[in-house]
Design a protein that fits this description.
By secondary structure, the chain is α+β, with helices and mostly antiparallel strands. It folds into three domains: 3-62, 2-Layer Sandwich (Alpha-Beta Plaits); 85-266 and 472-519, FAD/NAD(P)-binding domain; 270-463, no CATH class. 28% of the residues lie in helices and 23% in strands. The protein has helices at 11-15, 17-28, 93-104, 121-131, 162-174, 194-207, 253-261, 281-289, 373-389, 400-404, 432-448, 491-494, 500-518, and strands at 3-9, 35-46, 53-62, 85-89, 108-112, 211-213, 218-224, 227-233, 238-240, 244-246, 267-268, 272-280, 306-309, 312-320, 324-327, 337-340, 349-357, 395-399, 421-423, 458-463, 470-471, 487-489. The strands form six sheets. The chain has a seven-stranded mixed sheet. A five-stranded parallel sheet has the order 6-5-4-10-22. Strands 1-3-2 form a three-stranded antiparallel sheet. Pfam families: FAD-depend_C, FAD_binding_3, GIDA. This is Thiazole biosynthetic enzyme. Residues 85-116 form the FAD-binding domain.
Length: 520
């Protein structure tokens, strides 16, 4: 039987197979020649002390113990061309993994996606970055793969159900992701690699008889006696099915408006809003690793920070080491920021959303919009930022210390945000209470992380799409909407997930509930 060990080693040993084998041999008290295979099961970095260590969980096979490499294989997806159809609105992680699960369960998914396929989206991303043109149906938020495809591909989740998480990770490996995601404490695919994986998932769905309709926007729901019958598209076509998974993401405002107009019950949901802060990656490395130079064996350092300020949580969100800031508006007349990293995380800058938790009471000035009050609050800030920055895709920006002192920055250096920045006193962007919390919060951040508070850090506004401003309620047991039978609100847009993995898990859960309801 192989031995399972918990190790704490230097970054150099963790990165060098021969050194690792030597280290393991010493621990199990055998010659290095007798160590047949060391399999890394889990890996994380411990940077709490000056001497940085890598935590490893490994299985050790000696020379007389058989080791068989575990190959990740996809499930046996059968052809479902002639099976019962289920509509899925949205081709993000919730929609795609719901489709795969439906196929496993012998049902035919029809995915309706307002945006373009993963390759076609690139032209529209270039247009928003270079020409400041926002395509409302194809952008960083909308299109095949959803918001995660071109905004980082982080796979970390707080989900407590390890089996569900592992299943999603294994499926991603089966579709081409590096097996390292099964090992790393904070797995990450990278924006440069995720598109091919997404394309391969779509091709498998089609190969098995499912349908994927791109550039097809749902404009109405067909409902009879509070039961789902199908959808109407922008071309006037009706697609019929009495089971529908609504997985449209946190930015599909037209869907929220449609639900509200049809008096299908939805409710305002608190979310978080703030700015995106960019530091030189070298500075974050020095702070986090307590060294002048990161070296060859450590990855670009991330950071995570949470503070309570005036009774509100202020925290880092979607931190991107070695990454860039992207323009994520979904309509003309607004600006939105987000961040992403390539797989190697090799850019010169680090960025993170720094956001403050909002409460339902904050939306009172928009009370006339009812359940859409939070969405209108969010929209108002994005539109104000657009106006203040010059009514293009440039965003308001300010040096961090200048922001805490309410001082307009005399100059803003070139940042990773390609459309550009405009020097603005960012207290003009957000309501006064939110600005005050952020000013005090950054001072507290500077006390907690020495060197973090610097005018070399540039704040970009706003970071506003942290989660959905609306919740679409569903029954805890059946996962159906509390009012409309056959409607399954799903993923981030419905308020039941936050990130690629949790959205994918939620998509699978909805698919399973549909299969169970049809088998009764």
């Amino acid at each position: 039987m192989p031995q399972e060990l918990q190790l704490q080693v230097s970054p150099e040993i963790a990165a060098n197979e021969s050194l690792l084998y030597e280290h393991v041999a010493q621990l199990v008290r055998v010659s290095t020649k007798l160590v047949h295979k060391v399999v890394i099961l889990k890996r994380s970095i411990d940077a709490r002390q000056k001497s940085i260590k890598v935590n490893l969980k490994v299985s050790v096979y000696l020379i007389d113990e058989k080791y068989t490499e575990q190959k990740i294989e996809l499930p046996n997806y059968e052809n479902v061309s002639n099976k019962q159809e289920v509509i899925i609105v949205g081709a993000g992680p919730a929609g795609l993994f719901a489709a795969l699960q439906l196929i496993e369960l012998g049902l035919k998914p029809i995915i309706i996606e307002r945006g373009k396929d993963v390759r076609g989206r690139r032209r529209d991303l270039k247009a928003i970055n270079v020409d400041h043109i926002v395509n409302e149906d194809s952008n960083y938020c909308f299109g095949e793969g959803g918001a995660g495809t071109y905004s980082d591909g982080k796979l970390y989740t707080r989900s407590k159900k390890r089996g569900d998480v592992d299943r999603i990770l294994q499926l991603l490996v089966g579709f081409g992701a590096t097996p390292d995601i099964l090992v790393e404490a904070h797995p990450h695919i990278g924006t440069n690699k995720l598109p091919q994986i997404i394309q391969d998932i779509r091709e498998k769905i089609i190969e098995c008889g499912g349908k994927v309709l791109f550039e097809t926007r749902v404009t109405d729901f067909v409902i009879k006696n509070n039961e789902m019958q199908g959808v109407v598209t922008q071309n006037g076509d009706t697609i019929s099915a009495n089971k529908l998974i609504l997985a449209t993401g946190h930015s599909a405002r037209d869907i929220f408006e449609l639900l509200d107009k049809k008096k299908i019950f939805i409710e305002a949901k608190p979310f978080a809003l703030g700015v995106r802060a960019e530091h030189p990656q070298e500075l974050i490395d020095r702070i986090q690793y307590s060294c002048d130079f990161r070296g060859d064996y450590l990855p670009p350092a991330p950071y995570s920070i949470v503070k309570q300020v005036n009774g509100r949580g202020m925290y880092s969100f979607c931190m991107c080491p070695g990454g860039v800031i992207a323009p994520c508006a979904t309509s003309p007349g607004e600006v939105v920021t987000n961040g992403w990293s390539p797989s190697k995380r090799d850019q010169a800058t680090a960025n993170s959303g720094i956001v403050v938790e909002l409460k339902l009471e904050d939306f009172k000035p928009f009370a006339k919009f009812g359940a859409l009050a939070g969405m209108e609050f969010q929209k108002s800030i994005e539109q104000k930022a657009w106006h203040l920055a010059g009514e293009t895709q440039r965003v308001p920006a300010q040096r961090m210390i200048d922001f805490t002192r309410s001082k307009v920055s005399e100059s803003i250096p070139k940042t990773s945000y390609v459309p550009g920045t405009t020097s603005v006193e960012m207290g003009q962007v957000s309501p006064g209470f939110l600005t005050q919390i952020m000013r005090e919060g950054f001072i507290e951040f500077g006390k907690a992380i020495r060197g973090y508070m610097t005018n070399d850090a540039i704040l970009h506004a706003p970071e506003s799409r942290t989660s959905s401003p609306v919740r679409i309620p569903r029954d805890n047991e059946t996962l159906e909407h509390t009012q409309i039978k056959g409607l399954y609100p799903c993923g981030e847009g419905a308020g039941f997930a936050g990130g690629i993995i949790s959205a994918a898990i939620d998509g699978e859960k909805c698919a399973l509930k549909i299969a169970q309801s049809l088998s009764k």
